[in-house]
């Protein structure tokens, strides 16, 4: 087992690359959290469609992407699509794959919250002349988002942790750089312990922010 001084020396030498990887991790996790929420809202809205065909198609989308392991989806896009002449960068594959996956989960969270709403207020709004889109935008969406705050913030945490699988499609995020550090000196325990502590610190920050948001916006039971 190598000594800590040698590990610290290698860590210091590779720190610029590791920090660059950390920035890429935060970038990916932040973007997919936003894009996944926005697409999830669209998907959730379509689950309320009066058309049976649209509802069935959207429910199939949700079931497919929740049931599909994320790593399989990423591999299918990154390694499979080139056989059909479609080549995407690792970041593009990660962004699209994560977005579709996260949107399915977020739509499911929003739909669960919607099922707990008092429908009388929606009926009252309809009687007042509000069209379906206005009811959704002004009444339904604000409430279901507030009710879903715990689930949505937990999804953000999952996005950060799941971003570590992107190194398997050659996206050089934080964990990929830690892998390179470990391969340099073969001190795998120290390298992975460092990764674990960094992820733990980032998750702790998200949890603190999430709790503050919950206290401010969560609808009391």
Automatic annotation (TrEMBL):
Alphabetical list of InterPro entries matching this protein: AA_ABC_transptr_permease_3TM, ArtM/GltK/GlnP/TcyL/YhdX-like, MetI-like, MetI-like_sf
Pfam family name, one: BPD_transp_1
Alphabetical UniProt keywords: Amino-acid transport, Cell membrane, Membrane, Transmembrane, Transmembrane helix, Transport
Entry's transmembrane regions: 26-48, 60-79, 91-110, 191-213
Domain of life where this protein originates: Bacteria
Bilayer topology annotation: Multi-pass membrane protein
Main location: membrane
Localization, UniProt: Cell inner membrane; Cell membrane
GO cellular component: ATP-binding cassette (ABC) transporter complex
Limits of the ABC transmembrane type-1 domain: 22-210
CDD domains, per the entry: TM_PBP2
GO MF annotation list: L-cystine transmembrane transporter activity
Protein name in UniProt: Amino acid ABC transporter permease
Source species: Polynucleobacter aenigmaticus
